[in-house]
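Chain X:
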Amino acid sequence: MNEIKSFDVERIRQDFPIFNQKIHGKRLTFLDSGASAQKPQAVLDAVQNAYAVTYANVHRGVHHLSQQSTELYENARETVCAHLNAKSIDEIIFTKNTTEAINLVAQSYGQMALKEGDEILLSYLEHHSNIVPWQLAAEKAGATVKAVPIDENGEFLMEEYLKLLSPKTKIVAITHISNAIGTIVPVKEVIEAAHNMEIPVLIDGSQAMPHMKVDVQDLDADFYVFTGHKVFAPTGIGVLYGKNEWLEKMPPYQGGGDMINRVTFEKTTYATGHSKFEAGTPPIVQAIGLGAAIEYLNGFDFDAIAAHEQSLLAYATEQISLLNSVNIIGQAKEKAAIISFTIEGVHPHDIGTIVDQAGVAVRVGHHCAQPLMDFFDVPSTARASMALYNNREDIDALVGSIKMVQEFFG
């Protein structure tokens, strides 16, 4: 297959200063974007400017810097709102990451809607951050967590999902793309089926946001969550999109400043909209960085990003499949540019250590997806996850480094 010619990866790589360095004297081959993506200069500049030029706490301040900082912070919310095609900025809540966003929904919605005997429906593809919060909510309410099974290729089994939906199901929480094996879940169909039974749906979009354009109104998601650091933004910032009809009903998740209307010792009344769920000083600079990252991403054609990454995935799959004793875990028909693999007789941590000497960065471990690892009967894998700044040279370096591992272990 030919690499997408219209996608100028070499020019894109120039936007990311980290690629100017060498690792162990080798060209940096970064294949760990699924864990956390690198940052373009535009984001670094926005963060630097926010700290060095406009920094002050937001909201309520009448002085010039506070006004500037508030404007930049709320502009970031408007950028996220437009990017997701949400109806209102009140549907965009800033959190510290995806994990906090899911915990917010699990605890707040759970407090409002879950009772003994109810069911929460997840899948075997979930990250721990979309499992444990629901277990905590279920335990508190006396509800039960159930999981949609997958097949040997890592495909989401829609027929089994439909069988598991029932009047007891009070919420469905499903990943958009598996962080461990890249399976793309048909979330629009998942949502439609749940809505036919008046069941709300939360979609974990952490792995989807860097790779595809997400329209929450088109999906009709009740909740959609993602984290900034996987979408080329700083750490410490996440987003919860929630339909207003749910957010208005849900109780506050945390108490403190900025989420109140009026406080007395006798009674406190709460703010409305997104403010109700944003207690305390927010992640001001991180949110500004997220806004810059999304503006950077919007400079690209998302179809071109997808075509480029799918080209890399096909090339990597082809090349790795030619290697003896290397097994690719999860080969769904529809998957993102993520390859999880094992080498017979070699522990994934040894793989990660040896390929690092070649300047190749991959992730090793269970990827916070232990139920999925149990399904495939492996304790852990090595995972190469690609992004818009990767090219075939990266894949060739990965394959070469895997051969080094094989040679080392005979």
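Chain Y:
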Amino acid sequence: MSTTVKFLTKNFGQYDTASIGSYMNIGGFTALRQAVNMNPEDICTLLSEAKIRGRGGAEYPLGRKWSQARAVQGENKIVVCNADEGETTTFKDRELIKNDPFNLIEAMIIAGFVCGATDGYIYMRGEYACYRPLLLNAIRQAKNYGFLGENILGKGFDFNIHLYSGGGAYVCGEGTALIRSIEGKAGRPRMKPPFIKVSGLFARPTCLNNVESLSLVPHLLTDKETYMNCGSGESIGTKLISVAGNVNNPGVFEIPFGTTVREIIYGLAGGVQHDRKIQLIQFGGASGKVADSSVLDTPYTYDDLRAAGVMVGSGGLLVIDERTSVLDFLRMNQEFFSEESCGQCTPCREGNLHIKIILDKMAHGAATSEDIKTMGTIARVMSMSSLCGLGETAQNTLQSAMKTFPDVFALGGTNS
């Protein structure tokens, strides 16, 4: 039976989330006081030593990102927190916002100090509207206590935080689409370069981070040893994961890297409902790759999962039992991307449409071997030529399924 750890989640249930005084009674803002007396580059070095990779799915090293953001020349820099969390089966960031809002505010202030920013923006998905009052209250109280505004802690550091809600578009989880949405424009990606670290929100240098990535920083500053003593190999520390699907105990768990997939599903998540067999497991949300039960003894680390043909991604695990066919699952997944594609670039717009058509033909026994070949070609073209990460990763599920479940695609079980 696997057990969870409490590093990132150690504040959960320990204070009144509506009271900054309650947060300070358990050590809140100690990390900020420590940070403003440090060399910002030393904080970047600490993040690099901890080998923290972006927790939103891209896995870009956090220490490197902050160091690069700090090095960019420009005034009025911006830090953006991506709290859109539109990836299906992923709901870990929601738990951080709900259970530890002041830690997120503290983390953003530290990020602003390190990167040399004057403003922070939290972009929260529209479906999380019930948590707006919680964050707005945390921002207001932090300002009243002098942790936001001008000359923070007497260090000549000015920083303010603003909260924006999205309209529910999955594509706005992509950095440039998110930025355009905050600017009041249609939430569609734009070409890069210029990269957002040079010209992002309101054409100002911008550093964008995921909720979990940011939330780690205050804890790491005050308790580096605990974090560094967790994990396995190059995957140091802990990870928040969201487990959903046909399991007895779905939820969010904080695990040390190195916990096996079997321990997660059969330990923390309570096993598969009614002891049914696993049909497939999807890692990292709708844009994640799938595997069969052969991965159960794989350690949950970046390198081990990649070697097994899947990935950490957004930290979601979706368990599908034998009642659902692989083809039905792929059709459902494709419905999502056909709906959520912004339609701006041809590979994604047309590719998602035609793959949906072919999957439907397979389901009705009308697909040919040429259809299957065409579908694979479209998926490859999308991954190489789409404008943004949505189109590039939309067919991860299909491509991995074609490798893992070749029998499903043997003429589609249909006419040749």
